[in-house]
Amino acid sequence: MKSSGKVKNDTMVTHYFIKAWMATSLLLLSISFSSAVKAQSRIYLANDDHTDYMFYADEKGYDTLFVNMIDAWMANNNATSSKPADYQTKFVCDGTFWAWVYAKKKTAAQFQAFMNQVKSEKIVITMNPLIITYGCVPAEATLRGMYYAGELKKKYSIPFDMAITMENQVLPLGLASLWKGCGAKYSWNGVCNCSTKVPGLLNPRQKEIYWYKGLDDSGVI
Question: What is the CATH number of the domain that holds 70?
């Protein structure tokens, strides 16, 4: 991760986030299995922002952008709510830190409106606080990072079943078990086209969806 620093102007930051808005990430928000004959799967596509915290702006800049982006997507979701399901928008906050900042900056009523959209799954919040390089994070820190997700789940009765990590060429073996133990069912993992010691990693795979399991045989899809 690059060192933090103030941006020269707001244009660079805005441009970065607009590009992120336009990128549609494959996020596994819901998969249902038929116990009868054949497994039936449903995959949803939702806009997601890849948050490289402190990469292009300082803390104040990111706080402002988190709030503005949530407001914008809440407005989009409200505007499309009467359309057929396939044409309704959704958004994914890739960490609970978004919610924490929104709670600080907004009134209780505004935050409740945000939680209402999360409860209806118009907005999904992942269990991790931000995008984390889990290869250098101890187990205790991984668990503590999901405390706020647990607090929100209990207080507002909202769903939390997704945890994500991005730009990691490989993942720690035990992370799947920690996620599963905290209630995660699904994960989405993105890799960057950067230096890797895992040759052929980004080549087309026969199966893009798979079980990520730990040594205790528990894991996430």
Answer: 3.20.110.10
pLDDT of residue 191: 67
The tokens for 94 are 């890739």
* Domain-embedded: residue 89: yes
Measured CA distances, 185 to 14, 30, 112, 163, 188 (Å): 33, 9, 25, 8, 11
Residue 38 to residues 35, 54, 206, 221, Cα–Cα distance (Å): 7, 46, 20, 18
The structural domain count of the chain equals 1
- pLDDT tens for residues 51-84? 888 888 999 999 999 999 999 999 999 999 999 9
Q: Does pTM top 0.90 for this prediction?
A: no
Q: Where are the alpha helices (DSSP H) in the chain?
A: 10-22, 59-80, 96-105, 108-119, 139-144, 147-156, 175-181
Task: Map residue 63 onto helix, strand or coil.
Answer: helix
